[in-house]
């Protein structure tokens, strides 16, 4: 195990390298050996040369569950798009927009980013800001029925799974 | 043009047509929201989600169309779709922040208070004194 | 069936583009204009993809990918300029 610090220095983030390789192959739309080689070199070079810019590396506990989370997010996006479609076609004067402060319990930067993106992608809510002490997320709601219910819903549907997966 | 599309099985053809049409409708709804909502924050809701989903559906439709029989599955559509879904919330967040920073007024009757100058304020407790002049 | 739906979808997206253009030209605040431009970009991608199906060529998707990239980067750059007064710190 004395080799480990050396290895993490020279090859900082294996998962990210693999991701970059796949991204490169998708980008050039081919899997010829030459492209695989270029992708592999880029996949090593980019994390290695930018490692100073990544203050903390995200710990991905369970990639499978992240995939499951994304699938559920997709279902949520589809379902709540229907409700927002109704809201858009309604008379805007009957809507009750609101700013809601959502108390965060996540601490990891990457996890907060994921949560804010999930909130923005599910219709009816857009994340509009993060307080500097990272205790609150400012959420704009297109049509607010009940603030506590909304906060509870976000916590239950998105924040708790994200904490289990990423922290 | 479109010559070979006759070779598609009926249900696949119908699926592609459904995806393209519903995608276009959903994207149109997002743009209608953009055009008729009364303030910036409400306008953000339509485009960032509905339009992204609409274009995503269109891309999925074209992915299937090219995947069966034409030029083979094109990977770039997957890339565009993933990219759109990953970036839409980020740009929405940035635009909302810019609007808050410029103290763009929100509509009368908006519940709750936005905080402004969040770069300087420590958070929830101290945000009220200066954010009153925002509306 | 796809052949009949394609022009309809194109027409609907063109309508979306017009609505976005309306917001871009009118938009009371600069943020509205940025939002209009961003949505215009997203819808333009869809138009390019539909055009690709219509012309039966996937070559055009490189352009769609570029527009997606440039649209995102320019939106972020413009909003960052508004918030910070500077793009690269």
TrEMBL record, chain A:
Record's keyword terms, sorted: Cell membrane, Membrane, Transmembrane, Transmembrane helix
Single GO MF descriptor: monoatomic cation transmembrane transporter activity
Subcellular location(s) per record: Cell membrane
Keyword Signal carried by entry: no
Domain of life: Bacteria
Bilayer topology term: Multi-pass membrane protein
Gene Ontology CC terms: plasma membrane
InterPro entries to which the protein is assigned, alphabetical: Cation_antiport_E (IPR002758)
Main localization, broad class: membrane
Family: Belongs to the CPA3 antiporters (TC 2.A.63) subunit E family.
Protein name: Na+/H+ antiporter subunit E
From TrEMBL, chain C:
GO cellular component: a single term: plasma membrane
Keywords for the protein's UniProt record, in alphabetical order: Antiport, Cell membrane, Ion transport, Membrane, Transmembrane, Transmembrane helix, Transport
Annotated transmembrane regions: 6-22, 34-54, 60-83
Subcellular location: Cell membrane
GO MF annotation: an example: sodium:proton antiporter activity
Cross-referenced NCBIfam families: PRK06161.1
Family to which this protein belongs: Belongs to the CPA3 antiporters (TC 2.A.63) subunit F family.
Identification of the protein by name: K+/H+ antiporter subunit F
């Amino acid at each position: 195990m004395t080799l480990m610090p050396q290895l993490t220095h020279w090859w900082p983030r294996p998962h990210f390298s693999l991701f970059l390789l796949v991204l490169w192959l998708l980008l050039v739309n081919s899997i010829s050996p030459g492209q695989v080689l270029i992708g592999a070199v880029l996949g090593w070079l980019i994390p290695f040369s930018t490692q100073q810019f990544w203050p903390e590396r995200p710990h991905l506990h369970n990639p499978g569950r992240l995939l499951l989370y994304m699938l559920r997010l997709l279902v949520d996006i589809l379902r709540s798009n229907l409700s927002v479609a109704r809201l858009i076609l309604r008379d805007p004067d009957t809507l009750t927009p609101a700013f809601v402060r959502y108390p965060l319990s996540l601490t990891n930067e990457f996890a907060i980013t994921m949560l804010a993106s999930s909130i923005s992608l599910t219709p009816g809510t857009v994340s509009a800001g993060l307080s500097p002490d990272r205790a609150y997320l400012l959420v704009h709601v297109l049509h607010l029925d009940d603030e506590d219910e909304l906060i509870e819903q976000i916590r239950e549907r998105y924040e708790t799974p994200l904490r289990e997966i990423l922290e | 043009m479109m010559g070979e599309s006759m070779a598609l099985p009926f249900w696949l053809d119908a699926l592609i047509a459904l995806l393209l049409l519903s995608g276009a409708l959903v994207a149109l709804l997002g743009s209608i929201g953009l055009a008729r909502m009364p303030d910036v924050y409400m306008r953000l809701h339509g485009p960032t989600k509905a339009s992204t989903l609409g274009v995503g559906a269109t891309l999925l439709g074209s992915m299937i169309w090219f995947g069966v029989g034409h030029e083979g599955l094109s990977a770039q559509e997957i890339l565009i779709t993933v990219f759109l879904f990953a970036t839409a919330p980020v740009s929405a967040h940035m635009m909302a922040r810019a609007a808050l920073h410029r103290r763009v007024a929100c509509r009368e009757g908006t519940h709750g208070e936005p905080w402004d100058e969040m770069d300087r304020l420590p958070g929830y407790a101290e945000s009220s004194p200066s954010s009153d002049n925002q509306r | 069936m796809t052949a009949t739906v394609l022009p309809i979808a194109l027409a609907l997206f063109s309508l979306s583009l017009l609505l976005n253009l309306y917001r871009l030209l009118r938009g009371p605040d600069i943020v509205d204009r940025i939002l209009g431009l961003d949505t215009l970009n997203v819808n333009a991608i869809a138009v390019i993809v539909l055009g690709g199906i219509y012309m039966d060529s996937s070559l055009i998707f490189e352009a769609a990918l570029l527009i997606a990239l440039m649209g995102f980067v320019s939106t972020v750059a413009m909003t960052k300029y508004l918030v910070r007064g500077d793009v690269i710190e």
